[in-house]
TrEMBL record:
CDD domains: TlpA_like_family. It comes from Leucothrix pacifica. PROSITE patterns: PROKAR_LIPOPROTEIN (PS51257), THIOREDOXIN_1 (PS00194), THIOREDOXIN_2 (PS51352). Keywords: Redox-active center. The keyword Hydrolase does not apply. The lineage of its organism: Bacteria, Pseudomonadati, Pseudomonadota, Gammaproteobacteria, Thiotrichales. SUPFAM superfamilies: Thioredoxin-like. This is Thioredoxin domain-containing protein. Residues 30-171 form the Thioredoxin domain. GO terms for molecular function: antioxidant activity; disulfide oxidoreductase activity.
Length: 171
């Protein structure tokens, strides 16, 4: 009985964590049209840090996520498919996990995530705030132009259909 109660409580807290307690999260869209702030964070599978400036010349979807966030888990398979289809010289997704490497690895491996990934709870949350998500609501994505300007922000799940429309408009 204790195990069931503990599991139910854990599930409730994890789900609530995606939207920061059930209240409407605050987003700052004043970053739209501004130069995207550069960053340098640990890069999964690489010895060198991941820097936004290394992707100048590409359309970038910067996606903030966590493996424990149910909406994030829903959109990742579509992101993997879209990266396979469109990723390359002109476009990439960059995933910013707001959890540690060990916590994210089972999900990354199981979903064969095929785009650059960075991690770190504190650093990821600070970066999300810099990009207009001070509450750390997930999932949260920022579209960045090849010239490194913020084009748009997206809150919640980006469906494959919506993703196709975004790329058709900007590629």
């Amino acid at each position: 009985m204790k195990t069931i109660l503990l599991l139910a409580l854990s599930a409730t807290l994890l789900i609530a964590g995606c939207d920061r307690g059930g209240r409407d999260p605050v987003f700052d869209d004043s970053i739209k049209g501004q130069t995207a702030p550069d960053f340098s964070l640990p890069q999964l599978g690489k010895d060198t840090p991941l820097k936004l400036s290394d992707y100048k010349g590409k359309l970038v979807l910067l996606n903030f996520w966590a493996s424990w966030c149910p909406p994030c888990r829903v959109e990742v398979p579509d992101f993997v498919a879209m990266q396979s289809k469109y990723g390359g010289e002109k476009f990439t997704i960059i995933g910013v996990s707001i959890e540690g490497k060990d916590e994210m690895m089972p999900f990354v491996t199981a979903n064969k995530m095929n785009y650059p990934l960075t991690y770190g709870q504190d650093a990821g949350n600070k970066l999300a705030a810099t990009y207009g998500d001070p509450d750390g609501a997930l999932p949260y994505s920022v579209l960045i132009s090849p010239e490194q300007k913020v084009l748009d922000i997206y809150t919640g799940i980006i469906s494959k259909e919506k993703f196709e429309k975004i790329l058709a408009k900007h590629l």
